[in-house]
Specification:
328 residues, alpha+beta, 2 domains, six-stranded antiparallel β-sheet, 14 strands, 26% helix
Length: 328
Amino acid sequence: MNRNALLLSAVICLCIFPATARSQCFDSSCQSLQNIYNSAQIDYRDYRAKNAPPAPSLSAGGLTVPCQLNLWANNVPMYICFSQAPLAGADAWFRSTLQGMKRVQPSWEFKIVSAGAEQSVDAGPLNCEPTPAQGPYSDQCPLHMQLTRQPDGSTRLYFILNSLSSPYLFPHPAAYHPPARAGMAARAPQCDDFCESFQKVFAARNDSFAAFRSAGVQAEDTQPSVRFDGAQQCVVQNASRPDGSTGVDFVCRWPENSGFAAGSRFQGIISRVRALLPEDWSPNQQTASDNVTGAPVKLWSATEPGGKHDVRIYLSGETVAMHVTTWK
């Protein structure tokens, strides 16, 4: 074969097998990280299905750290691994896991902060910022790792990888500045169906939802001016407290097909409602028991100063309910 033929053969090979920037993972620790990263690209759907297996633990440096799937307050799924371990084993796990993530995603920028035995890493696209406590925006770092020294000499380990394709990932509002057209004011933030409907219901609390009661609201399709996506039923009904006081409720219910979906809906409604309430309303979250079945019920509530009105959001099994109540 002559020299030109060899060059042509090489070009054909490059076209059929293009080079990739990613390194191959050959050890089990790196392969586990690659699997987690692949799942993050599809919004962790393989771990969120109704009968999905639990999230696998993450082993590295001779240490195994348990993991689970959880949600940020803004409804974005995250794969979180946490453990408390002796410093030597924790340090080996941290270094091995960090090197594995660099092999899985070498194009990311890894921002490493070290202070003695304590270390933290935030990683993602160039110039990304760490995820805040309320949850990530689309332009923030999806990976966070942390090793923290405890007073007893042990360390706490954290590994968090956010979903890379969640529909709840939005650009950070501070980073988005649409240009104003000549002769036109810049557009105000949009209020969607949920926002507009909640504002109408919230305003109606002042006359005990008289407008909705006169319209005979029984479900979202009977009252076109109020629409809460996915709600099976919205009703106006009487309310009562254990102390004997009574009131009027506007209630919407969302039945879901799994506990995970219900938990996701629960967190999503809380984040939407919380942003629409006055700042002086007092929020609270607790777990109680169902009066009939005894099953655990999660309750998030916010109460107006003076206690005349409140908003309560319940999670019970696979059902979520939102109550806006005025008390007599």
